[in-house]
Task: inverse folding
C-alpha cells in the first residue's frame, strides 16, 4: 500500500517570506500523480498544485511551486511571498491509476504578520 | 465554491443510530468519492463511484454503505453509529476516474455521535 508522510506537523513563516513544506511517499509504481491540497479554517479542501510523475519539470502555480524528486520519492511545496491567507493545513496526496487518493497527515502552516 | 454540494453541514446523533449523508457532484462530473477526516485517522478514503457503479473501495466499515444514483448524486449511509465515527465526511467529484483528474471537494458534513 502507498504511504504519504509529512514530517512537519507545524510550520511558521513570516509574511512575505518563503516556506517549504516537506512530503515523502512510498510506492512501487511508476505511473502516479502527486497533489498538494490546502484546508483553511473553513474546512474546504482546495487543490493547490498537481504533478504528474512522468514529467520531470516541476509544477508551478503562481506563488506555489514544487520540488519533485522522483528517485528520492520526495515532493515538497514551496510557497513564495507568503500571505496571511496562506495560513491553513496543507496535505500532500498521492494518486495512482487505481484511483485511490492517499493523503499525508498534514502540516499546519502559520503566517506571522 | 467547488460546485460540490454536501448536506447536511452538521449532524448530531446518538450511538446506535443511522444517518444518511448526501452529495451532489459538480455538473458534468461522473465520479464521486467519499472521505472521512478524523483527528486520529487523518483523511481516509472510503469509497468511489463512477457513473453509478462502485469503482474502488478503501477503509470503509461494513456498517457503512454508499450508492450513486442515476442523477449522479451519492449517499453515504452510516449505521449502528459509534462514538469513533464522529468525523468530518467529505465528498469529492471529478469528471472521470482517471488518476490525474483533479478532485473537487465539498465543504463536508461534520458528524458528531454522542
Result:
Amino acid at each position: 500500500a502507498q504511504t504519504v508522510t509529512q514530517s512537519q506537523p507545524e510550520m511558521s513563516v513570516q509574511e512575505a517570506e518563503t516556506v517549504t513544506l516537506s512530503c515523502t511517499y512510498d510506492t512501487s509504481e511508476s505511473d502516479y500523480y502527486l497533489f498538494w491540497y490546502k484546508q483553511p479554517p473553513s474546512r474546504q479542501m482546495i487543490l493547490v498544485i498537481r504533478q504528474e510523475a512522468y514529467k520531470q519539470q516541476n509544477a508551478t502555480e503562481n506563488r506555489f511551486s514544487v520540488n519533485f524528486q522522483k528517485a528520492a520519492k520526495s515532493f515538497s511545496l514551496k510557497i513564495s511571498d507568503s500571505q496571511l491567507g496562506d495560513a491553513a493545513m496543507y496535505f500532500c496526496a498521492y494518486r495512482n491509476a487505481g484511483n485511490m487518493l492517499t493523503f499525508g497527515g498534514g502540516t499546519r502552516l502559520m503566517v506571522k504578520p | 465554491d467547488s460546485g460540490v454540494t454536501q448536506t447536511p453541514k452538521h449532524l448530531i446523533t446518538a450511538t446506535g443510530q443511522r444517518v444518511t449523508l448526501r452529495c451532489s457532484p459538480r455538473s458534468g462530473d461522473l465520479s464521486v468519492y467519499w472521505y472521512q477526516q478524523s483527528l486520529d485517522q487523518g483523511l481516509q478514503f472510503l469509497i468511489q463511484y463512477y457513473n453509478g457503479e462502485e469503482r474502488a473501495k478503501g477503509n470503509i466499515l461494513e456498517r457503512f454503505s454508499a450508492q450513486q444514483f442515476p442523477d449522479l448524486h451519492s449517499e453515504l449511509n452510516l449505521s449502528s453509529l459509534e462514538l469513533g465515527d464522529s468525523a468530518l465526511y467529505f465528498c469529492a467529484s471529478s469528471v472521470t476516474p482517471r488518476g490525474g483528474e483533479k478532485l473537487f471537494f465539498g465543504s463536508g458534513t461534520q458528524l458528531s455521535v454522542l
